Amino acid sequence: MRFLDTNVVVYGLSHTNTPKSEILKNASKILSRIETGETACTSIAHLSEIANIFEKKKGILPACEILDSLLTCRSLKIILVHPHHYQLAVELAREKNVSINDCLAALLMNEHALKEIYSFDKDFDKLNVQRITT
Q: Strand, coil or helix: what is 56?
C-alpha cells in the first residue's frame, strides 16, 4: 500500500492543459488505479487540504463531491491524525525545513510501515521517502 499525497488528487482532477500536462496524466492514472481497486491510504489532514484547495478553485459543491468520492472509495484507507502527530510533524518541519503536512505524511507512513508515497512533491526526497510519480 502507498500513501496518497494531496498534490496527486489536485493534479489528477485538474482539467487544464499546462506545461505540467505529463504530471496531470500520471496523476489521473494513479487516481484511476485507486478508484478501480488498488489500495492506498491518506490522512484526514490531507483530505482537509484537498477540500480547502477545491473549495477555492471550484466552489463548495464540487469540493463536497470530490471529498465524498474519496471518503467512500473502498480502496482508500483514511488514517486519523492526533495532536501528537502534528507535534512531531512541527518538530520535523523545523529540522528539515519542509512543510508540516509533508512531515505529517512521512511520520504517518513510518507509523504504518509504508515505504512509498504517490507524490510529485520533491520535498519528500529530503524526508527519505520514496516517491512514486507514475
A: helix
pLDDT (0 to 100) of residue 27: 96
Calpha distance 6→119 (Å, rounded): 8
Our CA dihedral for 14, 86, 124, 5, rounded to 10 degrees, sits at -30
Q: In this structure, are residues 46 and 101 in contact, taking their beta carbons and an 8 Å threshold?
A: yes
pLDDT 10s digits, 91-117: 999 999 999 999 999 999 999 999 999
CB 65 within 8 A of CB 85: no
Query: How far, in Å, are 79, 80, 94, 112, 129 from residue 102 at the CA level?
Result: 14, 15, 12, 15, 10
Q: Which residues of the chain have pLDDT under 70?
A: 15-20
Tally of structural domains, the chain: 1
What pTM was computed for the model? 0.94
Give the residue carrying C-alpha cell 509504508: 114
| Helix axis angle, 60-71 to 44-58, nearest 10° | 150
Give the domain CATH number at 124: 3.40.50.1010
